[in-house]
Amino acid sequence: PRPPYSITVLSAAMKSPATTLLLLSLLSATYAFAASSASPTSKLQLKYFDIRGAAETCRVILALGQEDYDDARYIIDPATFQSPEFVEAKENGDLKMNLNRAPVLLTPDGQTIGQSKAIERYLARRCGLMGRTPEDDAIIDCIAEHCRDVKDAARQKGFSKFTKNKTDEEKARDRSEWFEKDMPEMLRKIDEAIQETSASTGYSFGNTPTYADVVIWALLRDCFAADLEDTTKAAEKCSSLNAVADQIASNPGVSKWLKERPESSW
Predict the structure, then answer these.
(1) Among 43, 140, 150, 176, which residue's Cβ finds the most Cβ atoms within 10 Å?
(2) Cα–chain center distance at 125
(3) How far is CA 22 from the centre of its chain?
(4) Residue 263 has what pLDDT?
(5) Residue 212 phi/psi, 5° resolution?
């Protein structure tokens, strides 16, 4: 049978040393280019403002998974709350995949992912914090969504300083009602639910850390500083949830990140 084209060409070229050298150089360059194109050329890059905000759960997942990444931050002017770097990123089209908002995640192969929850779940899978089956994934997602329900309910209660249509007295009343009645009841239900899915104390599902555990930690331990004491009190009877939050906080990678991360009030 006839040998492959490249072998045929090289065989013929053996009659001319100069041609042989040229062909070998070309083939070497071709293989080197193919190898470099097939392998990652950079690490993950997370783009967000210089605050915790909507990206901090992503950062904690990365710390838990011990994943090296570029923590790219848009600096906010404390006097104007404006970020020229963010404006420039929008104008350059860097944030299109999140509809000109932050955060976005750039993967090593050049893909851009928007929406903080989509980024969280992508990173959780990448770092081994999801389940082994679709059913496992669904239960982990279910627990995470329960926690999101708590945050949504607090926002709807409308007692934050950003609420415009209430007096300070009305905000104070609603805040007390939230932390003394509404939040404890919602947390109690989640605490009972994870007792059905946990296989070991300190884990909301199975017996290894999951995305849901990180979300529980964020809910109970990484809230606004002004709300931390009241949140802790609201959760004081939720032994399972507190064990999960403590387990995440004690992880060496997470503990290191919490000590070293930039200061931020929110």
Answers:
(1) 140
(2) 10
(3) 49
(4) 87
(5) -60, -35
Lookup result for tokens 């944030």 = 95
Provide the 10 A C-beta neighbour count for residue 123: 27
Q: What residue type is 10 in one-letter code? A: L
Q: How far apart (Å, rounded) are the C-alpha atoms in residues 228 and 72?
A: 27
- % of the chain residues with pLDDT over 90: 80
Give the tokens for residue 93. 């089209």
Residues in the chain: 266
Scan for tokens 């509404």, then name that residue. Answer: 182
- pLDDT at residue number 35: 35
- Asked if residue 107 lies in contact with residue 44, where contact means CB atoms within 8 angstroms, the answer is yes
Under a CB-based contact definition with an 8 Å cutoff, are residues 240 and 212 in contact? Answer: no
Closest CA to 113 of 69, 144, 122: 122
**Rounded CA gap, 228 and 41, in Å?**
41
- Strands of the sheet with 104-106, listed across from one edge: 69-74, 44-49, 104-106, 112-114
Record the pTM. 0.83
How much is the pLDDT for 16? 52
Residue with tokens 């669904």: 138
Long-range contacts of 167-172 (CB under 8 A, 24+ apart): none
User: Torsion angle of alpha carbons 82, 84, 86, 88, nearest 10°?
Assistant: 150
**∠ at Cα 82 (81, 88), nearest 5°?**
155
pLDDT score recorded for residue 89: 96
Instruction: Report residues of the chain scoring pLDDT below 50.
Output: 1-14, 17-41
Strands 69-74 and 44-49, by their bridges, are parallel
